[in-house]
Amino acid sequence: MNAAGGGTEEADLSRITVKRNGHTYGVDLNGFLRANYVQNNPILRAGDVVHVPELRNEQAYILGEVDKPSVVDLAKEPINLTQALANQGGLKEVRADARGVFVFRSVGGRTTVYQLETSSPEGWLLGTEFSLIPEDVVYVTRSPLTRWNDTITGLLPTVVAVRNLDDLAD
Description:
Blueprint: E1 16-20, E2 23-27, H1 29-35, E3 49-51, E4 59-64, E5 70-73, H2 81-87, E6 96-107, E7 110-116, H3 121-127, E8 137-142, H4 144-169
Parallel strand pairs: 4-8
Antiparallel strand pairs: 1-2, 1-3, 4-5, 6-7, 6-8
């Protein structure tokens, strides 16, 4: 790898393959670089073909009543739910429902929904034990009071317009 210029930012060093004599072997170069696993640094022979794939799209999505809805990159290192929410500025204090932090996870075509209660420090601590995986969708709901206020705010221009029409009719 070094002789070829090393890996790029887009290289997935944990999924390298070496094809030798019709057999394909997986090589986790990250395992060698991080933990010195010598079996992950094979000696190449004449005729070996080395393939370094691009990093997979390993993202989770943070949506709803958070300060900065965004995509979280999971390719470099694992991230837990509390980290992900904190990295996005946390919950919107006025608008978010502390009982309404949901993680939607699809595995094998089946969707599972997890709920985190963040109204106390224990909930945030529990979130540190929940690792996000690629394609997780984290959604923070609005508080009931915010939903009510949004409904009233949406109706208010209509009420004012009707009152103005009534004033014009008089």
